[in-house]
Amino acid sequence: MLRALLVAWAISFALSFPVMAHDHAAMAQAAPSGASLFNLPSHWTDQNGHALTLRDLAGKKSVVAMGYTSCPDICPLIVANMAAIEKAAQGRGLRFVFVTLDPKGDTPEKLKAYAEAHGLDPADWTLLAGNDKAVRDLAAVLGVRYRANGEGGFDHSALLTLLNENGEVVYQKPDMQVDPADFVAHVPH
Amino acid sequence: MARRAAILATFLAVFPSALAPACAAPAGMAPVPAGAFTPFFKMIPAKGQRGAEPRPIALKAFRLDRFPVTSAQFAAFLATNPQWRREAAPRLFVDPNYLRRWREGAPAAGEALAPVTNVSWFAAQAFCEARGGRLPTTDEWEYALADAGRGRDQVTRISLDWFARPNGARLGEVGQGAANGYGLSDMVGLVWEWTEDFSATGSGAEQRNTSSKDDAAFCGGGAAGVRDPADYPALMRYALRASLKARYTQDNLGFRCAGDE
C-alpha cells in the first residue's frame, strides 16, 4: 500500500512540472482582466533597446513609478525608495519598472546610463520609454499627474504602484514617506 | 432595443449629416487661429521663492468641434467600435456609471442631439482618435473660450447662471445658444468638457509630498496661485479638472474633439 502511494506521489510530482509551466505560459497569454494595465496596447522600448508591451511584464509582481532622468530632486528619491523596497523584498521576485515622462530626452541609451549610474540591477529593473500617447495613457491609468514646467522638466506626482502578476493594481503609495517594510507588507503572497 | 440601435447606426452611416444638430449652424470643426495664451496658474516656485507670474505661451492654429459631441455621434462610434460599449469596456478605462442611461448601444430616448455624458477620458480620447483627431489641450480649450477677449462678461454670466441651476435637469440639445467669435457653441452652460491634459491641473509641488509644510504647496493649491482670483468660473473649471481621474464619468461631463491645422 505504501509503495503504491509512493508511486502515485512520484507520478503526480513528475507531472506537475509541465503542468505548472503550461499554466504560467497560459497566464501570460490569457486575456487580461478588466482592471489590468495589460489592457493598454501601448508599445515601449527598454534600456537595452528591446521593444515590449506591458503584457511582457506578466508573471511577476512589479513596482512601477514614473519620472525622468534629468529630474533634479524628486526622481532620485523615487528611485532610492524603489531600491530600498528592492532590498527589503529580497527573495520576493519583484520587478522594478521606471517609466520616463520625458521620452524625447530619455533615449534607451540615457536610461541605461541612468540605471548604471544608480547601480540598478538589470536583472530586476526595467526602464521604459514610449511615445507621448503611451506615456499619457499609462499616467492616466496609474493616476500620475504631470505637466511640462516650461524649463525642460516636468512637475509630476511621486507615486509608487504595486502590480500583481496579472497587471492589476494592488497598492499605491502617493508620497515620498515610504517605509520599505510597510510597502513590502502589501506584496501579495 | 438591439434592433433600434442597429437602425440608428445604419441610418447614421447612410446619412452622416443627420449628426448635425437641429439648428442651422454648420457641423464639423471651426478653425481657431494661432495666438498667445496666458496660463491660469502661476509657475510653481522653487522652494523659498515666490510664485512667478505666468508668461504668455504661443499656441499654434488648431481646429475645434463647433459643438460638444452628441449622443448620436457617440452611438455611431459605438456601432463601429463595440469594445467601447457599456458592457464591453474594461473597468480600467471606465467607472461603473459609464453610459449609465444607455441600453444596447443607444442613448436614452430623446437625447440623440444632447451632449454625450457619462463618458470617461479614455472613451472620449478613443472617439476623437477614431475620427483622426484628439482631445484639445487645456490651454487650447481655454484659449478658444477666451475668444480673443470677446464676450468675457457673457461667458461669466452664462457660467454663473449654469452653476446656479440645480443638477438633475435634463440636458438640452447642442447649438441652442449663440456661437462665439470662433464659431464655437456651448463652451460653457451645457456640460463640462474633458481636455487631453486635464491631469496637468494639480500636478504641482503639492503632489510631491502630501505632508509637506512648504509654502509653495499652499500657494499652488489656492486662489493666491492663479492669474485672476476674481475669475470664479475659471477657478471652477480648473478645480473640476483637478478632481478628475481618467476613468471617471459624470452626468454633466462631455467633450469635443480638436485637430491640428
From TrEMBL, chain A:
InterPro entries: SCO1/SenC, Thioredoxin-like_sf. Keywords: Copper, Disulfide bond, Metal-binding, Signal. Gene3D superfamilies: Glutaredoxin (3.40.30.10). Disulfide bonds join 71-75. Residues 1-21 form the signal peptide. PANTHER family: ELECTRON TRANSPORT PROTIN SCO1/SENC FAMILY MEMBER (PTHR12151), LINALOOL DEHYDRATASE_ISOMERASE DOMAIN-CONTAINING PROTEIN (PTHR12151:SF25). Belongs to the SCO1/2 family. This is Protein SCO1/2. It comes from Rhodoblastus acidophilus.
UniProtKB/TrEMBL annotation, chain B:
Residues 1-20 form the signal peptide. InterPro entries: CTDL_fold, Sulfatase_Mod_Factor_Kinase, SUMF_dom, SUMF_sf. GO terms for molecular function: formylglycine-generating oxidase activity. Pfam families: FGE-sulfatase. Keywords: Signal. Residues 31-258 form the Sulfatase-modifying factor enzyme-like domain. It comes from the Bacteria. PANTHER family: FORMYLGLYCINE-GENERATING ENZYME, SULFATASE MODIFYING FACTOR 1, 2. This is Formylglycine-generating enzyme, required for sulfatase activity, contains SUMF1/FGE domain. It comes from Rhodoblastus acidophilus (Rhodopseudomonas acidophila).
